[in-house]
Each structure stands twice: as structure tokens, then as C-alpha cells.
Amino acid sequence: MLESPVPRLGSAHLEDLAIVALCAAQPRTAPQLHPELDPARRARLRSRLQQIGRHDWPSSLKEDPLLRRGYTLRQCVRLITALMLIDAHLAPSEAIAIAKANELGIQRAVAQRLGTAHQELTAARGEDVMVVVPLGELVSLVAETDWRAARAQAVRLVRRADLPCLWSDDADLAFAGQRLVLDIGLSTAAAWEWLYARALMPDSAREQHWAEIEAERHESGFTVIDGPVLRRI
Predict the structure, then answer these.
(1) ∠ CA 71-98-228 to the nearest 5 degrees?
(2) Helix (H) or strand (E) holding 133
(3) Per the confidence metrics, is the pTM higher than 0.90?
(4) What CA–CA distance (Å, rounded) separates 80 from 63?
């Protein structure tokens, strides 16, 4: 049997990972090691995870032949991103399309928040990066220029300290429409504390994640993706 070159989280823990990430709050106390959720809500969450999997997200066996061994930290971040977008009432197909197109940019924001050592979890106040989804662009309520149309699924990465300027004259934000703000860094940090406290992943997983993202630092954080492909099951 092939051994995974990176630490992985077993699929049996995905529901608890999702609960911890979706319920993250600031400030927070020590993570609840065994998250509680009533059976009806847990069943809905399980259904949501299955929906995400049908879109071959956070990965597929073709992309990652070792997927059955569990999820890497990068794949956990992918999953948390999709869950948070769906939790904001975006359709799964839209949520996963946004997560795929902006995957590297979001991974960079999360890697910055997590750091490379357990002691670095707390980001400098106001310096951590928020993920901003321009809903006006997403639903195309107003005819846009060709440039806007090409970036209709592009998120913006905004420092927490700059959130009051979401409707500023900055070239990348100077347009009308609502903004959906997601603190994916906070949710992932809470999930990591839970993983670390339960010894479900060693600290080397974060170091490897950082190194992987650093190796791709010259690639674009946003990539235009062709229409979503739903895997029939």
C-alpha cells in the first residue's frame, strides 16, 4: 500500500472538522475536542459534505490517488472554503467554482494566518487577510466591462484593518454592489487548533503546507476555470 508523503486527516473526522470551522469565533477559548451537533443538523452537514464531494472537491482520486488515505491540510482548507461559501447561502456549484478559481490566493491567506509553528497562530492584529466576495459581480446584476466579466468569480483579499474601505476608490473595489466577507483564516486556525489538540495532524503538516504554497508564489491567485463538472454517482 502506498504511504502518503504528507500527513492526512481521516475522512471519519471530516464532520467534526466542519463543525469546528463553521462555529469558529473570536475571541475563542480552547477548542472543543468532541464538537456537539444535534442529529438533524449533523445529517444536513453530512449531506453538504457529500454534495461537495460530487464536484470532486476538495480533490479527486485522479488528482490525488492517495485521497482514500485521508485529506491533506491543503485539502482541508479547500473544504473549509467551500463550506463557508455554502454556509453564506451560495449554491454548491457557485461555491465550489469560486473556491477552485481562487484556490491559491485563499491558500496564501490561510498560510499567512497559520504561520509555520504552533506559537505563530495569532496573526498580528489587523494584519490577517479576509476573503471578500463581490456579490454584485457574482450575480451580474449590471452589465460590466470585459475585464469585470472575465473576473466575475474573483475574490478580493483584504487586510482586516482595511475592512472599512470595502467601497473605496481603490481600482479593485471601486464598483457598486454588496460584499460578502469571510474570515477563512480564523476558521482554519480554529480547525488547526482542534487538529493539533487531538493529535490528528503533526505540526509538520503546517510546515509542509507553507513550503508548498511558497513554491507556487509566482503563480496567479485567481485562475479562470471552465464550467463546473458534476460527477454523476
Answers:
(1) 85
(2) strand 129-134
(3) no
(4) 19
